[in-house]
Automatic annotation (TrEMBL):
SUPFAM superfamilies: Ribonuclease H-like
Domain HAT C-terminal dimerisation: 106-188
InterPro entries in UniProt: hAT-like_transposase_RNase-H, HATC_C_dom, RNaseH-like_sf
Protein's name in the database: AC transposase
Organism in which the protein naturally occurs: Triticum urartu
């Protein structure tokens, strides 16, 4: 059972970290606190991985938004840039500097800001909507990440030693749809098993 848990944890902890970091009541400090409990002295390696994923995600959204702004904004004539800076790549340098300053200030500012007080009636999507002008890139990430529904069924299935049961509280699918999904899963597994088995007696 411990091996199952370790395998499941290593495959799922990274996707779970990003939504938690986007929670203003927890942020990165909560992830660091929990990872220390989970990994002990090996926490730095996993924490570095989480930060790298967060930075890459922020950089991807930042690039998309910057490109959109560049397309909508009036473009400065190339000759004017050359005459002003006497450098044909001056506009590129300005673009990079602006982008790097924005990236560093927004992400670092959010992580360094004090966590929000935990309350039972806290609405995280509303919080990001109200702070979208302060954190434009992070708010876009939050809108995409936090609306993804999560399920505990997969984790319980991984550790359950009994039969796989779908209760009335866990599924709103009709019985025909559930039966079709189960059959499809069995067919896919069967095809994978045959695909890994070399053919015998078939020669062309």
């Amino acid at each position: 059972m411990q091996k199952k848990f370790d395998k499941y944890w290593m495959e799922s902890y990274l996707p779970n970290c990003i939504p938690v970091i986007l929670g203003p009541r927890f942020k990165l400090c909560f992830i660091e606190f929990r990872l220390k409990q989970a990994f002990g002295p090996d926490v730095e390696r996993h924490l570095l991985t989480v930060k790298e994923v967060l930075d890459n995600l922020f950089e991807e959204y930042s690039s998309q938004m910057t490109d959109a702004l560049d397309e909508s904004a009036p473009r400065q004539k190339f000759d004017e840039v050359v005459n002003e800076e006497n450098d044909p790549l001056a506009d590129w340098d300005q673009h990079l500097n602006k982008k790097q300053r924005q990236t560093a200030s927004e992400l670092a500012g959010y992580l360094e800001e004090d966590t929000f007080t935990r309350t039972e009636d806290f609405n995280i999507l509303q919080w990001w909507h109200l702070h979208s002008s302060k954190y434009p890139i992070l708010s876009c990430i939050a809108c995409d990440v936090l609306v993804v529904q999560a399920s505990v069924v997969s984790s319980e299935s991984a550790f359950n030693t009994g039969k796989r049961l779908i209760s009335d509280y866990r599924s709103r699918l009709c019985s025909e749809t559930v039966e079709a999904l189960i059959c499809l899963q069995d067919w896919f597994r069967c095809n994978d098993k045959h695909a890994n088995t070399p053919d015998q007696g078939h020669y062309y």
